[in-house]
């Protein structure tokens, strides 16, 4: 893998992370304070849990593993929380985590992208880690959007307002 390909790959991962952050921010704008800790049922997670989970996962994979830092994640606590952060604090925590991850990603070397390491009992190259981070972030962004639509009885959250998504490829 050459440096040019590595930079483009990292750039695309960061783009996907920015898109998920944008969509979560739009979802949060439509929520009231009490909404972030509501659970659809006893066996489901609140939006607050999902944000804590995203911060833990992004930190463990992108910041600690890819950035060669100590892994201090407490995964169970992400799902056990029922309060402790306001809507604003959750969004700030997510943005700070994503910003730190993007900084790590922008500075990752080709050798780190290719090096395999163990994370959560799985073995991934740096490329595998970045794919996981982007897809995992996107997956839970969809859950947050779905739960926001349910809470607010909305068909659309405005993610693509003003964009014609019916334009055909040329």
UniProtKB/TrEMBL annotation:
UniProt cross-references to Pfam families, sorted A to Z: DUF1572
Tree of life domain: Bacteria
Protein name (record): DUF1572 domain-containing protein
Organism of provenance: Aquimarina algiphila
């Amino acid at each position: 893998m050459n440096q040019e390909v590595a930079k483009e790959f990292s750039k695309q991962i960061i783009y996907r992370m920015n898109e998920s952050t944008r969509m979560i921010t739009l979802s949060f704008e439509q929520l009231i304070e009490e909404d972030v800790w509501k659970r659809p049922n006893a066996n489901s997670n609140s939006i607050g849990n999902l944000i804590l989970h995203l911060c833990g996962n992004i930190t463990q994979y992108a910041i600690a593993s890819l950035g060669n830092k100590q892994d201090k994640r407490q995964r169970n606590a992400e799902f056990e929380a029922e309060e402790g952060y306001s809507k604003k604090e959750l969004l700030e925590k997510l943005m700070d985590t994503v910003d730190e991850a993007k900084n790590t990603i922008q500075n990752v070397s080709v050798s780190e992208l290719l090096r395999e390491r163990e994370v959560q009992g799985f073995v991934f190259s740096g490329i595998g880690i970045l794919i996981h981070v982007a897809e995992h972030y996107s997956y839970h962004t969809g859950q947050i959007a779905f739960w926001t639509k349910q809470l607010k009885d909305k068909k659309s959250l405005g993610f693509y307002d003003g964009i014609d998504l019916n334009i055909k490829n040329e």
